[in-house]
């Protein structure tokens, strides 16, 4: 089992080109399964493979694990078995026709347009750090890119004259995302007035820098969002991803088609994007209940 997992993870990294964080997640999920089989004396790569997987799912249920967690771990196990079959190490897939636990629909938290305006108005653009924060937040809301994609942007990734950015998404897939006028304005101001003061004598290629002149991290940006959320008195638990959710929801509310939003977000499967149609439907129902005389 150890060699099988090791070879599978190497396949994901080398052949599939998956991101490091994704591979770490696969490794963690498969490690839990391996330890369970070892503790219960199951043979996951033998004739008892299906029994091992079913017993593991039952154990997750007994532990009170959420359907989402069980589904993710089962997906990792299924991927491992498919790899082993394609590699000629297994003849039969123990997870064939095995359905994932049904997940309850959990809608992401989004901001109203007024709340977005309040949040984005907080940075003091008279300081280098404040102008950087303003540019980052405006760019995040204007493009809907992931936080990892935002902090991974290099100086050469952004094309202000043509109003677009190039970013690397999951699986190292590159996509082009257009920029709005406001994001262009503040990013240009940041480049002209703030970046040189932050970088000092350094030579980092990163677009957005910390006080030491190095690349700003995901954790650093998370702290920035939390600070401005507190200043804006918005009574919601806001994370950097909240602006991505708000971007998608506001586009759909204003008439964007689902396929276009899928491309902008970098979703491989449109079913991932469809979660936002539930959000807009909920918003429409709320508006109807509040405004229709016979609601």
What can you see in these coordinates?
The protein is globular and about 65 Å long. Helix 6 runs antiparallel to helix 8 and helix 11 (240-253) packs across helix 14 (275-291). It is mainly α. The chain contains 14 helices and three strands. It has helices at 2-14, 20-40, 49-62, 67-86, 113-120, 128-143, 147-151, 181-193, 195-199, 218-232, 240-253, 258-265, 270-273, 275-291; strands spanning 158-159, 164-168, 174-178.
Task: Summarize the topology.
Layout lengths: L1 H13 L5 H21 L8 H14 L4 H20 L26 H8 L7 H16 L3 H5 L6 E2 L4 E5 L5 E5 L2 H13 L1 H5 L18 H15 L7 H14 L4 H8 L4 H4 L1 H17 L4
Antiparallel strand pairs: 1-2, 2-3
Helix pairs in contact: 1-2, 2-4, 3-4, 5-10, 6-8, 6-11, 11-14
Average pLDDT over all residues: 88
What is the helix fraction of residues, given as a range?
Answer: 55-70%
Biggest sheet, open or closed, and with what strands and sense? 3 strands, antiparallel
Strands of the biggest beta sheet: in what spatial order?
Answer: 1-2-3
- Derived from helix and strand composition plus strand pairing, the structural class reads mainly alpha
CATH superfamily of the largest domain: Intergrase catalytic core
- Strand % is under 5%
How many structural domains does the protein architecture include?
2
Q: Rg, please?
A: 23 Å
The fold-level CATH name of the largest domain is hpI Integrase, Chain A
- Beta strand count: 3
